[in-house]
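Entry: DUF2255 family protein
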Amino acid sequence: MTTTAPWTDDELDRVGSAEELEVASRRPDGELGGRRTIWVVRVDDDIYVRSVNGPTSAWFRGTRARHEGRVEAGGVEKDVAFEDVDGEINQAVDAAYRTKYGRYSANTIQRITSSTAGSTTMRLLPR
């Protein structure tokens, strides 16, 4: 996985503040799969996503083939690599989800910050 450049400050601001992100994973043949709308958060200078439905979600399973895809949010469209993350960063990602989407029901927030959803946390790396 080679990245071409980090996110610019403008891209971090625009993607990180976007309500939703469109994600399409790259299939084994190199073509992009269908787009899915998901939530996105920024933690420091990184962008994170996760599957509210955990690892059985179709869009998440699609990221397993090549760990590459394309995202669009806040007027930014980028090819990205999906980097699996775990450990302490999940606490910061949980906090970012609670802060950004806290106006939604407690049940919805609990689902996106559950250990099942947390097991799918990925950092988006620009390509």
